[in-house]
Design a protein that fits this description.
Elements (H helix, E strand, L loop, with lengths): L2 E5 L2 E3 L5 E8 L8 E6 L6 E6 L5 E3 L7 E6 L4 E6 L8 E7 L10 E5 L2
Parallel strand pairs: 2-10
Antiparallel strand pairs: 1-3, 3-8, 4-5, 4-9, 5-6, 7-8, 9-10
Length: 114
């Protein structure tokens, strides 16, 4: 059974930083391109970026230069380092496999506000 846990969200002031962690289980993690997504109520879920099995990353333009993705294949963990956060980054953040998506987890809430 595939499960995923995302955590690390919270309330942060504009310009601040957070690191989100995603721990999926029940998948062949080493072979997966993993992606981070975010969703604001009333809007479509959007992809933030992704990371290949060997660490190659791609971030969407609206976070490029501020967010970075990394992974630890030994611990089956994916990270999203978020710097210089803006109020428009406020959302619930999720991770999933890009090519073989599994049921969404509960995500982790990020609120950027002064």
């Amino acid at each position: 059974q595939v499960q995923v846990a995302e955590f690390g969200g919270g309330l942060v002031q504009p310009g601040g930083s957070l690191t989100l962690t995603c721990v999926p289980s029940g998948i062949a993690f080493d072979n997966q391109v993993m992606a981070w997504y975010r969703q604001v109520p009333g809007k479509e879920r959007e992809r933030v970026g992704c990371i290949g099995p060997r660490g190659a990353t791609s971030e969407e333009p609206y976070v490029k230069g501020r967010f970075s993705i990394s992974r630890n294949n030994v611990k089956n963990t994916v990270f999203l380092q978020m710097n210089n956060l803006k109020p428009e980054d406020t959302a619930v953040y999720y991770c999933n496999s890009l090519a073989q998506p599994f049921p969404w987890g509960q995500g982790t809430q990020v609120i950027v506000s002064s």
